[in-house]
Amino acid sequence: MDALMQFVFSGLTVGAVYALVALGFTIIYNASDVVNFAQGEFVMLGGMITVFAFDAGLPLPLAALLAIVATAAIGVALNKFAIEPARGAPVVSLIIITIGASILIRGATQVLFDKQLHRLPAFSGDDPIHLLGATLLPQSLWVIGGAIAIFIALWLFFTRTLLGKAVLATANNRLAAQLVGINTGFVMTLSFALSAAIGALAGVLVTPITLVSYDVGVGLALKGFAAAMLGGMGNPKGALVGGLLLGLFEALTAGYISSQYKEAVAFVVILAVLFVMPQGLFGQKTTERV
Amino acid sequence: MTLKNNWVQLAILAVIIVILPTFFPSGYYYRVGALVFVNALSVVGLVILIGYAGQISLGHAGFAGIGAYACALAPVHLGIPPVLAILLGAAISAVLALLIGRPILRLKGYYLGVATLGFGILVSMVLSNERGLTGGPDGMSVPSLGLRPLLRDMGLRLSGGEFWYIFNAAALLIGIWIAINLYQSATGRAMRALHGSETAAQTVGIDVARFKLQAFIISAVYASVGGSLLALQNGFITPDVAGFMHSVEMVTMAVLGGVGSVLGATFGAAVLTLLPQILTVFHEYEHLVLGLVMILVMIFLPLGLLPSLAARIRWRGV
């Protein structure tokens, strides 16, 4: 029982990160119908930039803020210089463009910073909290709490503000949104900035636990994608539930079956979801019009 | 694309392959050439899948991994000669493609991409984790093909580089020849029809699922044979051959050159294989340049390097 609780805690912690990556996917997918394979690089950038700004002497909150703003700017640049010029291109081209962007960002990080593993100090110390017979790092609470806060903030943004509703309208039907006077170009820019900022924040929160290096992005992107698929592509609630579930599956697999094949869980989940219920847990069934 | 055009392309390629070595300053270039051909062979398979049938795969390195490890493991554990191990790997890949192809190929676009990606990663994970059999991430050595000593006994002395240059070039030309024949056959026409519009193809009585599956299996066999030759040529193999990056490289080569033509595929393979060789001086910047090339080509030359350039020249010239 104690062991189970321990696995649940660690599962929820990584699951919260997957949920944030999945949320980033969802926002960009809704705004532009593009699956952004560079999503994981935003998380990596958030961690790396914070580490280097912090080592350069900036206080941690300021370093984190700098990292989030810088990553958001990179997200906007990605949209402006790589996605928008290729609007209407076939899916294969868009996949190659975003994978190219992820390789480019990784290559640039490796040149600008380095190839080492880096850590950040935990925000509220390293004394474990004893809970339900298991231990929990304070940083885990930061990660889970951060994820919940972001989901609530976004929910308020999408349901309570005019701008949020404009984003939803664009996601629903770009042309109709344009016709009622919504600046869809701005909505795209905003979506990429938001998605990159959320990724970066996830990177800042999780770096004290998992460390960061230039190449952590690919794995995170794929896990986040699996989470988004599980929850139902394009659905923020699905991203949250999918992320947490995937984290739990992984932790339980590592605990009870094989830690070697822990990484395989995400891909087994992807295949299983696609075969059995392609619309995911919360996704809507779409019918194709001819 | 006309029949004549395709055969002309094959002839041009054959001539280039024969003439090129006269410009080689050292034996190292034979090795690089052999590497280009073996990559091009896998890419020709993807041209059939992406260019003919209009399906995508981000997991074909998984089949390359199966082909490669078949050549590494079968001669040791089953005692069969490496040449037959190539066929064994191809057979295993074909059966696996048949089994996973049915459910996977119902998916479209991103979903198909991600499902194939998941398959590829699972294969590379098994290869890395089963240390007892595969040596894990450190890789394992591959027995030699054994053809070169045979040729030497017959009086033909070739260096390793020369041998693989000729062997892989022959394999590539055969692969392209089959692909061109397929393009013109009823099967190839059916594949191209479903690429244009699945609904329209269905209306005229084409079994869409069957031809998608055929394209998938054929391309899996190409990737598997490519992986086998790569393993035999290097004499050593690591699970990276089945990794996500290798899948991405393969698709990028195909799309970079232009999925519409077999010569384009070879050209794409050549560019992406040579790029790291040229950039070794700037090793640090290799990924940066690769990513940039991928983005720029897709935006400015969406048909791929060769067709886009050809179209531009024709447009100016006429």
UniProtKB/TrEMBL annotation, chain A:
Subcellular location as annotated: Cell membrane
GO molecular function: transmembrane transporter activity
Pfam family, one: BPD_transp_2
One annotated GO biological process: amino acid transport
Keywords: Amino-acid transport, Cell membrane, Membrane, Transmembrane, Transmembrane helix, Transport
Transmembrane segments: 6-27, 60-79, 91-113, 140-158, 179-205, 211-231, 238-258, 264-282
Primary location group: membrane
Membrane-protein topology: Multi-pass membrane protein
Gene Ontology cellular component annotations, sorted alphabetically: plasma membrane
Top-level division of the source organism's lineage: Bacteria
Record-stated family: Belongs to the binding-protein-dependent transport system permease family. LivHM subfamily.
Name of the featured protein: LIV-I protein H
Biological classification of the source: Bacteria, Pseudomonadati, Pseudomonadota, Alphaproteobacteria, Hyphomicrobiales
Gene: livH_5
